[in-house]
Amino acid sequence: MDDIFKKKAIEKLVGDPVTLLLLLGVAFGLGLIIAYTYKKTHKGFSYSQNFFTTIVLLTVITTFIVIFIGDNMARAIGIFGAFSIIRFRTAVKDTRDTIFLFFSLGVGLAIGSSSVALGIVGTLIISLIIFLLYFANPGGTSKTHFVLTFQVDTEKYSTELFESVFQQYLKNKTLLNVQGGYKGKKLTLSFNITLKNIERIDDLVRDMEQIKGISDIHFVNSKNDLEF
Q1: Domain 145-221: which topology?
Q2: When comparing pLDDT for 142 and 128, which is higher?
Q3: Rounded CA gap, 47 and 50, in Å?
Q4: How many helices (H) and strands (E) does the chain have?
Q5: Could you tell me what percent of the chain has a pLDDT over 90?
Q6: Kindly report the CA angle at 180 between 219 and 176, in degrees rounded to 5?
Q7: To 5 degrees, how large is the angle CA 176–CA 180–CA 184?
Q8: In three state form, how does the secondary structure of 128-189 look?
């Protein structure tokens, strides 16, 4: 008899412990799938391991909150009242990151409301769509678009120094950034460029390296998201 009362008391406090653990376990697994989808399809240099962890934890925590609220309206009002005083000051740089946060929230809500099948199927379908968009790259830039960065000695700097090479290999160019360094002895220039012929990129690098005063030549495909 005492065991029955203890079991009922536990269920009243935390619900069915087995169901709770199963739902949180499923949320954790789906959160990992979402996070790995984010990692594998991320472009650019702003990838953050902390954001990877955030996606997983957000899915699990959302599931826990929905389970905790259940059908209790008073709890729901209390939870939303507590959240309303929280101020999030970290700006999300990429709108795509915001999409993944909503993805995690949606899956957490589904699992927390015991719609496990919906959560699993939704995660798999949306992840598949994200991968398809990643590989298809709709709306992406041409493969001939690059960001070119190089260093030039301050004393020898002149646009005429590399203008003839640019005219030979580039369809168009835009100066993105100029940054000083090495106690004012060198400048780092960044250009958004479009090549006339992608197969001649090695020739461009070779000719740039032969110009006295230019060093550290790097190309980055502009399909990656860069900030200047």
Answers
A1: Alpha-Beta Plaits (3.30.70)
A2: 128
A3: 9
A4: 8, 4
A5: 25
A6: 45
A7: 155
A8: HHHHHHHHHCCCCCCCCEEEEEEEEEHHHCCCHHHHHHHHHHEEEEEEEEEEEECCCCEEEE
Give percent of the chain with pLDDT exceeding 70: 75
What is the per-residue pLDDT for 14?
A: 53
Segment (H or E) for 215: strand 214-221
pLDDT digits (tens, 9 = 90+) for 30-76: 999 999 999 998 876 677 888 899 999 999 999 998 888 877 666 66
Give the domain ranges of the chain: 2-136, 145-221
Q: The whole model's pTM is what?
A: 0.62
| Residue 226 contacts residue 159 (beta carbons within 8 Å) | no
Residue 43: what residue type?
K
Angle at which helices 160-169 and 201-209 cross, to 10°: 160
Count of other CB atoms within 10 angstroms of residue 217: 15
Closest by CA to 185, choosing from 213, 159, 149, is: 213
